[in-house]
Amino acid sequence: MKRSYQRFFYYLTGIILLSLGIALTIQSRLGTSPFDALLVGLYRTFGLTIGSWEIVVGFSMIVFNSIVSKKRPELFAIATSLFTGAGIDFWMFIVRDTIVPESILAQSMTFFLGMVISGLGIAINLQADFAPNPFDRMMLVVKQVTGWTISFSRIVISIFLVIIAAFFGGAIGIGTILITLFSGPLIHLFMTYVDRLDRRFILPHTTINNQT
């Protein structure tokens, strides 16, 4: 039971950091990830909030995954979209007027800080293994259906999202390319350290509790 609480703590911490990182990359105005670029484009075209579109697009992906894989929709994935959408709107409200980078140096610093924080958030969220991310699940579904590798499936989905984002005037820029190229290695690096931290401070206590 205690381990479940720890996983949920990881899960929420990961989402909080991820949504903060997304808000910072958006605020940098240098481009965001393909998925977030689409959210910004939908916000600019139809209104609502960026977080609201996170929920809408996430739910659409969940339905797509369910239909293609012929399985029930994953309810925990809906929770992930809801929490992430709420987190994005919260952080955008905080940074919109407090972090307004004007120079290219300030924009670059804001972007790289956002990318690093997002990578850490995703790594912590993956360590929690608590609820699936609709985008990551779609990547696995496409892999299963097509027989492609995970990397190639992710590239194809990312290109598709960029095309749609461009149609809606999304936040596409040099940052989009940088995130596409370096977010994977960055997440992998953080996962190594998060796993070590988990094994050093969490698992030993869990083992002791299970033995008593």
Short précis:
The chain is mostly helical and 212 residues long. Helices cover 84% and strands 0% of the residues. The chain has one domain.
SSE diagram, text form:
Layout: H1 2-28, H2 34-46, H3 50-69, H4 75-98, H5 104-128, H6 134-146, H7 150-167, H8 174-211
Q: What labels describe this entry?
A:
8 helices; 212 residues; disordered C terminus; mainly alpha; single chain; 0% strand; 84% helix
Walkthrough of the structure:
The protein has 212 residues and is mostly helical. The protein has one domain. 84% of the residues lie in helices and 0% in strands. The chain contains eight helices and no strands. It is globular.
Shape: globular
Which class do the helix and strand fractions yield? mainly alpha
DSSP strand (E) fraction? Answer: under 5%
List the secondary-structure elements in sequence, H or E: HHHHHHHH
Average predicted confidence as pLDDT = 85
User: What is the end-to-end distance?
Assistant: 14 Å
Low-confidence stretches: 205-212
